[in-house]
Structures
1.
Amino acid sequence: MKICFYALREYDEKLFCDQFKEEFQIDYIYTGDYPSVENAKLAEGCDAVSMTPCDMSAEILEAFHKVGVKYITCRSIGYDHVDLETAKKLGMRVSNVSYPTDGVANYAIMLMLMCLRKFGHIMKRMELQDFSLKNKIGKDISHCTVGVLGTGKIGATVIRHLSGFGCKILCYDPYENESVKQYAEYTDLDTILKEADVITLHMNATDANYHIIGKENIDKMKEGMIVVNTARGKLIDSNDLIEGLESGKIGGAGLDVLEDENGLYYYNHVGDVLKNQDLAVLRSFPNVILSPHTAFYTSEDVSDMVKGCFESLYAFENGEETAHAVL
């Protein structure tokens, strides 16, 4: 058995690949490049390919299928970047990974605190040696109502950790999680939009959730509220978010993910002219904090992400069940 790792980082992921290669007795090869039709031939002789979120459209999947690849093992929880319909047609299995929820959950809370306390703006002015207080006053999260959209593993961890701050917590999910009810109150989406000072997103990118933060719902929001997204870029309509920030309806945003981030995040674009105009506009706002999809990035999480790929290939090849199977 062999995996071809694409976009492998030698400075962190390779160490774990070497470790799990011995544990699972599965060989691997790698490249630092992202998968493409042109470099799909690198995976010839491999049973599986692995990648971080990137373009895995029909054309690329077909190129991998032609060289004998049977499995797509995503090094991410999300798999919306993979054309599942084409994968199914080609008979290719697809898997994702899981990792400890604390890293992303705590990162989301960090962004909430930074936005509420205007930390991004404060630090920029600090660099200019502007030590005055004007326009730096913030809000204490302990006196806020926080709305959590999505109460799966990460959302539930956010709620549990937020409970220590003493804030009121409202949550929304079509499938209620009994474990969070001791900390938060389930309610409908409109109530959260109306009452929350902060809304944090922890949903999958599905057709039902697409642009859940868009003009219609933004209009229902409390004036000056904060929105935080460490989940999926497609949950927010970037244009509507920008309009909400410009009008003041949205008081700030902490965004670790962005719509149309493929080909942008995880690349070094120093000196490049970037074609994502939404990114340029959002970066110009003093009340917006952007980070390049790094909420997951802890040593514990990276280890589990690499391990999940080896586990999935082993299970697929040996006819075993795996919780990571998507298709």
Note: The first strand starts at residue 2 and ends at 5.
2.
Amino acid sequence: MRHAVFPGGARMRPRLVYAVAESCGQIDVKTATAAAVSIELLHCASLVHDDLPCFDDAAIRRGRPSVHRAFGEAVAVLAGDGLIVLAFEVLAKGEIDCVRLPQLLSVMAQGVGAARGIIAGQAWESEPSPNLRAYHRAKTGALFEAATCAGAIAGGGDPEVWREVGGLLGEAYQIADDLLDALGGSEQAGKPVGQDMEHGRPNAARELGIRGAFRRFEELLTRLVDAVPDCPGRTRMRHELLAQCTRLLPDAQRGSSLLSGAGMLDTPVALGELLARPA
């Protein structure tokens, strides 16, 4: 379990929890922290299971051996299960008030559930001809939705008005990941590339073409910045979302994005700046 969580990757989802909570203007730090940790544990669990031989059979994750390659398939299954349970235990022990806790439990369960969460996404991936958008929204968007909703709960906002922000960000992330799988290198990805083609999985670059996938990515970003609801930190939040999306693209594609020249917003502010400031 520790191998799956540390040293970790970009921690985008927990950072998103904090960013939304602060944008809403009334952040409860203990609630935000418990939600951020829970989200990351669920994400790490999904990576452990995604790498298993029955799915991707990936040898590398975050630049080192995947859990099943390091410890065996049986231990990897149990480690992923253990991380899911631990995620909900963190919420139970997180000193969260009796109003927010049931909301957070529901949001997290939806994000990983079989109806529209990660489990649904993994099931779509196992189908011969899945709907690309439904696959993206479940496989990747669902946990981003959980992150934005959890952040809103921790910040005293309405989680439902933030749900679309998470869904759009998740879709954009998955398309960028598809482009990286098609165009990037293993060093940048931190995992094997070309896996979608090898396993016959849905991939935006393959279904829409490279240019079509890139246009779809930019369309999602336009919708994303418009979807950020009115809140005290709206302008900063829009900048941060674009800054994060910039780093998702394959290195060779970043210069041609609307992020670099369309002037939709001023120079993006790094999300790390927000998180480095005292709460």
Note: The mean pLDDT is 86.
3.
Amino acid sequence: MESHHHHTIPKVSNLNRAFIIGIVINTIYVIIELLAGIYYNSLSLISDAGHNLSDVAALALALLAFRLAKVKANDKFTYGYRKSTILVSLINSVVLFIAIGGIIWESIDRINHPVIMQGLPIAIVAGIGIIINFVSAMLFFKDKGKDLNVKGAYLHMMADAAVSLGVVISGVLISLFHIYWLDMATSLIIVLVIFYSTWNLFKDSLSLTLDGVPKGIDFNDVISEIKEVEGVIDVHHLHIWAISTSQNAITAHVLIHPNTGMEKLNKIKKKIKQELEHVNIQHVTLEFETEDDKCCDTNNFISEK
């Protein structure tokens, strides 16, 4: 006996426009910041421009993933392309780690080849970056808790705003006290900020790529929720994974009493689905068994502790 629950992907409002606006304004700023960094010999501006460029790429990939997620399922991809949202999230984090390596390389080179620079223009350009990044982050603030890619975009923009603030401070200090090594030091601080904001995103997306249990869902709590439903004796062969960054699924074998009628069975199915929705599992596939026809597969993936 099997029950399959189909659900509608949670709506994430105005994301298409938010991504497009974010891509456009950040692309313009990257060009301005890169040119200013080259003109004023500022490694911190060039590094931050590279960081912002990686965020533009991340936004573009995330937008592509959301559009692919809307493609209907077919006989080759029975879930459609929803998994692309997870893959893009993983790619985004890897791109940021590559950016970290580039910044470290340039910082080391700057130690051996220090340059004199003007601090005030650096501070002004970075100040514009604070505004750009904060406005971009606010585009995703409302929906950041609904999807991993949206959360990633929000974190990127807020991290960029913090980095820009650091560049402003170093620019002012360079202008006032001519402490030119602060430009390189700020670049290294940028590395730490990027790494901190990226590490959790990388871990979460990698776990989902490997079909790990999505963050926030406790495996044994799910077992308990199902077993507490009246009429359920036990549950096994439980598998939980993410179909996309905003949609989770489960399959399970549910043991019930042999004399359970169809009406009672329907109530059990409905109750289990309701309970699982409360723990952020929307796509449910259940196979019901009795002691007489219980599966004999001894290779159960995991059992309750």
Note: Residues 148-177 form the longest helix (30 residues).
4.
Amino acid sequence: MTTIGLGTAAIGRPQYINIKQKTGAEDEPFQLSQFKQQGIALLETAYQSGIRYFDTAAGYGIAEEMLTDWLSGKQISDITVATKWGYTYVAGFDPNAKVHEIKEHSLKKLNAQWEHSKKLLPYLSVYQIHSATLESGVLDNMEVLSRLAELKNEYQIKIGLTTSGSRQKEALLKALDIEVDGKPLFDACQLTYNVYEQSIYDIVAKIKKANIKVIVKEALANGRVFANKKYPHYLPHYTLLYELAEKYNTGVDAVAIRYCMDSIQPNVVLSGAYNEETLMQNLEALNFKLEPEELEDIRTMNIMPEFYWNERTALTYN
């Protein structure tokens, strides 16, 4: 069965790539200590609500630190923690920062970020390359790949990768063939999949056959599943999504998440909730199941990857 996990990008740093929505909170002065307390409280709420998969990254501000602090002293054995290396958060919690993160897939960066990420042991189960694109060259870097294999063997963890961009399908297919010392390296992949970006739809079966766990991120297309006048080309899509939301007495977010669950049946779909209200709304996806004809209708919402990612690139940090 597909489960819902919690991604921590939105609670580890005050801004994330998304559709800007005026809430009033952006007018309040940022306080790091309060921000951290709120994040830890949401982790506890998520656990009490049944979430057992927590995804974080070295580049998510203080997200790894929050998870480490939350887990400290706990006596639980039923959770999976996944983290990622390859991005460094550089915004310093400044809402006006011009640069928020820097990508680097070097062996030096891997080793440096592992020293911090390993504090999540023994809960840490999945260690991932953050946004492994063909352009970054990380999938051809044998120094890095060999080091990941060493960590896998030494700490008995799974090695994964996350994918983004219009060529994520190619990157995933390349990753399937990567071996170190005659053994497949990757055990998990965290891919972008939602009602608009469905480019990996026809290779999911191949990924599963290779015994690689599938985790879905950006199920809400960075907020683009919600009706927005800035995207009139999605109007027919909005109509369908809101009709289904009304039918199942839930929100559009739950419909979008449920589509990911039912259409490709991944191991985990990540919620990117930043507070308890949005988390509870996301979890409503567990309360219903889409009909086959409804899945087919949403399947037709698929757009060209190049268009999707160009549109996403234009989004700002909010």
Note: The first helix runs from residue 9 to 12.
